[in-house]
Amino acid sequence: MIQRLVIAAALLEFCYGGMLLFLLIRAVARGASFRRRSLISQKVRPLIRGALIEYLAGSNNMDTLRGYSKSHRRDLVDGILEVHAAVSGGARERVWELSLELSLVHEWCNETRSRDRLLRCLAFERLALACSYEPCRRIAGDLQVRGMKDPDPEVRYAAARGLAYSTAKEEVECVFELAMSQNSLGRVLLVEVLRPHAVMLSETVVTQALRSTDEARVQSALEIALAWERAVPLMDLHRLIADGNPAIRQLTLRLLPLVPSSPENESVVIRALSDKMRSTALEAVVAAGKLRIEAAIPGLAHFLKWGDPELSRAAADALAEIPPRGWEILQEFGPAGSRPLQAAKEDNVAAEKVVRV
Fold first, then answer.
1. Rounded CA separation 228/221 (Å)
2. Sequential DSSP letters for 251-279
C-alpha cells in the first residue's frame, strides 16, 4: 500500500513538473515571438508611415498600402490611427476613405460581435473615431446602439462615443441618458462628445430632466450642463434655486451665468446672498459678479464689512465686475478693495485694446 502511494506521488510530481516545464517553454516561446514581432514592427512602421503620408499628399498608388494590409495589418492599423490623430479636415476624411478601401471598418464591425471583451471594446473605440466620417457611420449602422446595451461598461462608453457623432436626435439623446445614469467619472467620459449637441439637448432632454421630481436626476443634468462650459438655452432655473436642496441650488447658481438672463434669475441670486448656508451664499456672490447685477451691490458691500475672508474676497471680485458703482464701493473700502479694483481696470483696458485691434 505504501509503495503504491509512493508511486502515485512520484507520478503526480512528474506530471506537475512536466506541466511547469511546458508552461515555461510556452512563455519563452511567446516572449521570443513578441520580441520578434516588435523588431519587425520597429522596422516596418516608418515605412508604413511614409506610405500613409504619401497617400495623404495625393498619391493614388494603393499597391504598397494593400501589401501592408496583408503582411502587417496590425501595424498598418496603428499607423492609420496615429496619422488620424495628427491631421484634420479633408486629410482626416481621406484616412477613413483608406480604411474603407482596405476593409478595416468592416473588420471592426465584425469584431464588435466578438466574445472577447477587450476585442469588442477596441473595435468600438476604433469605430467611435471612424464614425466622425459619414460613410463609416452608414456602415456601422445600428452597431453603436447595440453596443450601448453591452454588459461591459467600457464597451458601452466606447459605443456611446461613436453614437454621439450621429445626426439623429434620438441616438444622441440615448448617449445623454447613458451619461445621466453613470457616476461622475462615467459622465466625464461622455460630456466631451456631447458638447457639440449641447444646445439641441438643452432644448429637449436636459429641460425635461430639470423638471423631474427625482433630485438625483436633476443634479446629474446640472452637472452635465456645467461641464459643457458653454452658453445653453435653459429657462426657469430660478425655480430650482427657490425649491431645490442645497446641492441643486449651488449647482444652479453656478450655471446661471451660462443661460439667458432674466429678472427672475437675478432676483433669486440677490435672495441667495442672504442664504443661511455659507456655500450657497458664496455661489450667489460669484454669480452676482458674473451676471453684473447692480441690485446685488448692497449685499456684496455687506460682505466686505462682515463676511469671512473668503466671502469678502469673492464679494470684492464681484464688485470689480460691476462698474462704475461697484468700483466706487471698492474705492470707499480702501486697501481691501484696491487689488480687485486694479485687476478689473487692467482687464478692462486689455479688452478695449482687443476691440480696437
1. 11
2. HHHHHGGGS---HHHHHHHHHHTT-SSHH
What is the average pLDDT score of the chain?
A: 82
Q: Choose among 161, 180, 186, 181: nearest CA to 171.
A: 161
* Distance from C-alpha of 214 to C-alpha of 198, rounded to nearest angstrom: 22
User: Looking at residue 356, what is its pLDDT?
Assistant: 41
Which residues, including other chains, have CB under 8 Å from residue 320's CB and lie 6 or more apart? Answer: 289, 326, 327, 330, 337, 340, 341, 343, 344
d(CA 143, CA 140): 6
Q: Which residue has 490611427 as its cell numbers?
A: 81
Q: What is the pTM of this model?
A: 0.73
Q: Would you state the pLDDT for residue 205? A: 94
Which pLDDT does position 280 carry in this prediction?
93
- CA distances 320 to 53, 165, 172, 238, Å, are 53, 42, 41, 25
The Cα 103–Cα 222 span in angstroms is 42
Q: Give the model's pLDDT for residue 156.
A: 87
Residue 257: closest CA among 223, 290, 286: 290
Q: Decide: 270 and 295 in contact? Cβ < 8 Å.
A: yes
Across 240-263, b (16+ Cβ under 10 Å) vs e yields: bbeebeeebbbbbbbbbbbbeeee
Residue from 249, 316, 308 nearest 285 by CA: 316
Task: Name the residue type at position 258.
Answer: L
A 10 A CB-CB count for 56 gives 17
Q: Count of CB atoms within 10 A of residue 50's CB?
A: 12
Residue holding cell 441650488? 249
Half-sphere exposure of 157 (CA within 13 A, CB side): 15
